[in-house]
Amino acid sequence: xxELLNNLLFDYTIRTVALGAATLxxxxxxxxxxxVLRRQSLLGDAMSxxxxxxVVIAFMLTGSKAPLVLIVGAALAGWLGTxxxxxxxxxxxxxxxxxLGLILSVFFGLGLMLxxxxxxxxxxxxxxxxxxxxxxxxxxxxxxxxxxxxxxxxALLVLALLWKEFKLLSFDRNYGSxxxxxxxxxxxxxxxxxxxxxxxxxxxxxxxxxxxxxxAPAAAARQWTDRLSIMVLLAAFFGAVxxxxxxxxxxxxxNLSTGPVVVLCISAIVLVSLLLAPNRGxxxxxxxxxxxxRRLRLKPVLRxxxxxxxxxxxxxxxxxxxxxxxxTGGGGVRWTLTVLEELGWVQRINQNHWAxxxxxxxxxxxxxxxxxxxxx
Amino acid sequence: xxxxxxxxxxxxxLAYEEKPVLWDIDLHVPEGILMAIMGPNGAGKTTLIKxxxxxxxxxxxxxxxxxxxxxxxxxxxxxxxxxxxxxWDFPTSVLDVVMMGRYGSLGxxxxxxLKERELALEALNKVDMSHLAHRQISQxxxxxxxxxxxxxxxxxxxxxxxxxxxxxxxxxxxxxxxVDLLKELRAQGKTVVAVHHDLQTVPxxxxxxxxxNVHRIASGPVVEVFTEDNLRLAYGGRVGFLTHSGDDGREx
Lengths: 376, 252
Known about the structure:
- The structure holds two protein chains of two kinds.
- By secondary structure, chain A is mainly α.
- Chain A is built from 18 helices and three strands.
- Chain B is of the alpha/beta class.
- Helices cover 34% and strands 25% of the residues of chain B.
- In chain B, strands 6-7-8-3-9-10 form a six-stranded mixed beta sheet, sandwiched between helices. A four-stranded antiparallel beta sheet of chain B has the order 2-1-4-5.
- In chain B, a hairpin with a 2-residue loop joins strand 4 and strand 5.
- In chain B, 42% of the residues are buried.
- Chains A and B meet through helix 8 and helix 9 of A and strand 6 and helix 4 of B.
């Protein structure tokens, strides 16, 4: 652990990798928030798969593997895929989900075909292009990271400047139009930012899993907050953390692709958030439901005790807990009785026998007459 | 400024894939009235409002607000969309949503500040929601959602209000509060056009009514236009059921 930290600070290669991964996580986490809120999570998947042929064609045309060249190629292809998608939905009867699948498979298929074609060619320069499938953070150089930081920084700057407009677009597009904002333009602009967030991560995480970096941090962040600004910051933080963790772990092993490891890291964060987050977390929800159910059981148990005492002259006649178990059914009767005791409605006579108190008797009478009134 | 009409719509026509949804609609709405737009399901009520506001692109027609094209007069117009048209699980607060009403006059890049906050709180006060200003919007009831949208339109300080089913799915208290608000707006000389479903309450809530069913059936003061003949024209055979059974014709 200390060695890892030491490497992080002083090992040039590892520091570069970590910085690159942090950048991509930060940018995709922040922008992905809007993709998730607009229910466009799958769009990121189509965009990143569509970017592959762009990478390969950019290399074929220029013979260069400079990051900026490949990023531009990826962005153009991702953009083209998105435009095709929008137009398919607008001008044909094909629905959005089918159109997404279509774009994704056609573009990705083309990319794979070109990639295998290149690999069979004697040109040695193509080596490493297949890293774009699953990502290889270890191949990041300082100039790559600088490019990522500049492009990603610009995207985040646009997001900050148009914060209010993008919020309006995401929450109530029609209302925004009625205020005079050109929502179509803002829509295309935001999608372009998604494309940027995706392409700067392609080298490190790969086209197949990059969309997870757009969706997962935001999904986790949503669990912890009800404020958009905090959600964006949290998502950026989660993205950066999982990026760094994934990149470092994969750089320890030989030929361990970064993409899958990064995705495992962010998945862990999502899982913890789904379970543990206050209010929205599953455990929290479960506890609340149990509490509610118990509260609801108070009335039936009190009513049943009252019904049982009706068979005796003494309204405070004690009854065995098992008698209540048979009428109310199930467990938790003892717990319910304890709560009723705290309310002063029942009293414990001995280990297993319980009786109504005067307060409990009037409450039970009120309950039963209320029920009769409701039923008639 | 002696324009008699707050809203003038001429020859508005809109079609989806060659099927006409609105056909040659003319409207002349004077200033300071509350007008209901009514018609059966699929008659094009929402479409009409959306086309007037330029949210849909009509095939033909012009819209003028106080005598000038809508595009130039947008700052005079406020819109209350259908409550169900947005995701109420969006991570934001009531106050934040209401402040969106100021975005138009803020323009590009500028952020809402103290002044916008005060205006928003004032509007929330008018709809009796100031105690919920910081509530997360997913925790609102239907009536509270509707009041939030109304407050958002109020902070726009417009002269013409378009509301899409403001009474849909709200409780009796909220309905009463909304009616009072509409009458207050009218007292200030504002004009309100609302898509409405409940035939019973039309004479009580509104001054004017426009009946449409793709075509414009009739438009004018309630006493003149809200007749059984016109209703039969708009709603077809179902009108007997609607007027006599006490069914309010409201969608769930």
